[in-house]
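ok trying this again, last paste got cut off
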Amino acid sequence: MTRNASSATRVSPRSTLRRRLDQFGIGLAGLCMVHCIATLMIVSALGIGGHFLLEPAIHRVGLVLALVVAAVAIGWGAIRHRRAAPFVTAMTGLSFMGGALAVPHGQDEIVLTLIGVTLVSAGHVMNLRAAR
């Protein structure tokens, strides 16, 4: 029995959903980076926006959202492609992001967060590549 070309190239709806979750995770990491850098610039240069941009709830919600998206997309990918590197990379990044919540606002928080979101984004990229 041979498969025809169209069935061999079909992508399952689950695969598409996982891919979209990885892409969403990468976008979320990018938004987090923009938030960190913009907050630093706006608050430092203009002295405005600190009450909103430095609100701890924004960071907690962002971390929860990143955890959920990474758990589903990268966890699902790890089960399918059996590669640990995307999972380990993303979980290390999430640990850095969690650590950023434990330090006062400032340079240390921004550095930990940027390292974290870079690693989470790299985990999503690795997950997308491993699924090919």
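PB: full thing came through this time. Residues 1-8 have pLDDT under 50 and may be disordered.
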